[in-house]
Amino acid sequence: MLDLLLRPHCDLHMAQTGAPPLRPTLHTVEEPPASSPPTAPYVVKQVPIGQCEFEFFAPHKPKGQRLQGVPTYSKANGTITAPATGIFLFQAHFADRYLVGRLQVHRSMDTWWFGNDSLTTALDPTVGHAQPSVYAKFSDDDTGTDLIGDITGHGYVELKSLDPTKVVVMPDGRLRGAVVTQPNETWTVSGTALGRVEFLPVRVVDYSAEHPLTQRHGSLTDLDNKHNVLFLAEGFREQDRARFDEIVTRVTHELFEKPAHQPYGMLRDGFNVFAAFSPSGQHMATCGFPVTDAREQVVEGRVKGIGVPVPDNRRGPRGDLYTLEDLVRKVGLPRRGEQRTPPELLTEWGTLDLDRFEPDKVDPPLVEAWKKHRTGGILQTRDTFFGLCVGVRLADRSSEKGAVPKPAQDGPNDPVVKTFVARMYEFFRNQPTRRIGFDPRRHPPAYFLPQGFIHRQHTFHRYLDSVRVPGSTLAIGAQWQPDPSRFRRSYGLVGLIVNDSLWGGTNFQTALALSLNRHQELAYVYPSAVERQLRRRDPESALPIDWDDAVAGMAHEFAHTFNLGDEYEFFALDESLPLPAEDLARDNVSQLGFLVAGAPADRHVDPDKVKWLKLPRIRAAAVLLADSVNVTSPVRGVKLTIGTGNTAEWEQARTRSTEVRLRAFNPPADGRQLPLKETSDEYLPGLLVGQVLAAEGAIVLTRAGTTTFPLFRKGSLVYIPLKDNHGQPLAVVEQKVLNHLRTNKAPLNRNPDRKTPTKAEDVPVDIPGFDAPCRPARLIGIFEGAANFSNSHYRPTGRCKMRDGPMEFCFVCAWLIVNRVNPALHPLLDKNHYPESKKEAKKHE
Description:
- The mean pLDDT is about 95.
- The chain folds into five domains: about 5-205 and about 395-430, no CATH class; about 210-290 and about 380-395 and about 430-560, Collagenase (Catalytic Domain) (3-Layer(aba) Sandwich); about 310-375; about 570-615 and about 730-840, no CATH class; about 620-720, Elongation Factor Tu (Ef-tu), domain 3, CATH 2.40.30.
- It has 13 helices and 45 strands.
- The strands form eleven sheets. Strands 2, 5, 8, 9, 11, 12 and 27 form a seven-stranded mixed beta sheet that branches. A seven-stranded antiparallel beta sheet has the order 37-43-40-41-42-39-38.
- Helix 1 crosses helix 7 (about 545-560) and helix 11 packs antiparallel against helix 12 (about 825-835).
- By secondary structure, it is α+β, with helices and mostly antiparallel strands.
């Protein structure tokens, strides 16, 4: 089973009057049979209602009463019955998978409306893609339920196509495009409920139709050995085309020209840049998260609201306190009309068995801010071409393994109760609000799952297959498609530029998506000062761009394609949890469970397990332009074709009997580079240059006692290691730093606070007898704080673009990018960017 889905979704609403019964269903999502064609969708099957399990919980009732008077699920007819209005959390499960959700029970449903002003769906012969969002206004109950709720897919509104030959309403409520709409043309779907009829304009797009590319940098030759970048437009209308062109031009220029983004500049010849533009129906992106009712103002007769995403992850003036996001994860969201004082709330929270809740991380101002951290409405979705969404709805969740038992009663000091409570509050743990991903309401589970599984027939992959350079029949889209069987240089180098100034950026392997600014407030408008239920974002016609941040963000996000992980911190890891024993997959981050030396409780780190500390510094290098060949005459060795550009350097190495090393280029399909492989078929040290064939652009390497050499493929690296004055090869970590790490077995952070996440660069501790670089935070070693966590996770240096985009790349991350794109430039990287004091530099060759 790939996933377990809950339909209609995980943030349910039901009304005692004015709406039909609520019948949620569970569905398994599985791979198609092995005999199916590659285009076969995932198999979505409904779980028999008699096999579905639902356990409800009343989080706002006093301790001891939270399992009483809760809704029940009927295994006979699949309906939910609720004895009273209120807010309830639940666990739904089948087999080894579970989902958590929320149910709000209201007295009545008063009215409804479409949550889309218009909607784009895909042309498809069998599968419905886009699902219309439907919102409702409920009665003003005294239990704190939301007045406005998301009733998408609940069955409360009857959807009907006005012309089923052009757009079809599928049984699951999704819309299947049957005929492509032309510019300025739409089809229509109606909705009916409570005596109210609304109409939704629908646009149908053929994502497999040919889409033209423009070439911005590089050439069409040798595409397989280049890193091909593709920029795509999301949330740009036809009238915004020139704006998109301007952005692509400037981003490309600054990425390869500004020193702050090295090593991209030195590697420019290894890249091609392309762009494709397809207009969206609306500009800006859909917001998945709720938005607070922060403040209002009247502008030209319109009431404008200004709020921030819920939950807000910004830290206040006291870094030792929870953020609002931290607090929401612990205690949930406030009910409508919450009026209790901070002492009253803190007293209650202390009685509720909340998972690892620390009262000393909460002060009265934080509680008062939390009480206002809610919304009175839901923003309309935006109609964009690819259907991206900033943030994630609480309604849209993926399943996990391991349902927990429901306790028989809400008793005191019961570990089963504490485990069940922790499970219920998982509902308030969600993806970061700055995450940008595909909206599950635009992309059906047959081709897409919320945890990021993207089927080969997903509309995004269809689009990539369809891109063409005008006048060329070259199937260039294959450069960006995944191939589980082999490594592709360009896979992931697709940049979706999102025409939005709201802070957002994500790399989701197939591509990255990035907005144009870091605004954390957003404006929205109501139809009138009285009617507040309908809310639309209030975009400017030309959104402001922070050029420096946009390019830095692009450089950061593209670096994930080179298997670099994030080095920033958002949370403190609970150190009572078991430590995973495996290393992290990204090449620049690691974790304590893998690096631990001795007992885990000691928190001692073994530097000899740190994969990046073994990277060699390189004095001279060349890349093989053809596969290696064993030769016997005039000398016995391995012949390497490296080109005619630098044979003089290798002749000098021959006359001086300088050691040469050979390392294979044979990355796995996932692109991992570390740890460096040391087997004889991947790595040969101790070689000498036996002959330089200048006219051929080749050298022959020899090694005493070796008569036959393994095959080294085109793209492999031959290099001369940089050595100290004693003839010892140098690694990226200074020997005195490594000795210090081996002695102390601790990270180098001078700041001992590992529990408080920070964005600041980390300055290392003083190391006796060692002169740090002029910017000490660039020192290479082991620093704590990476991969979203402030503790138990490690990175190479105190500052890096993978930690904060405006910074430069640290030397380790730059080394790994150069090693992927053009390892012949290692010597240039070392000469210009290696972080050492002038005193240390003089000691090396």
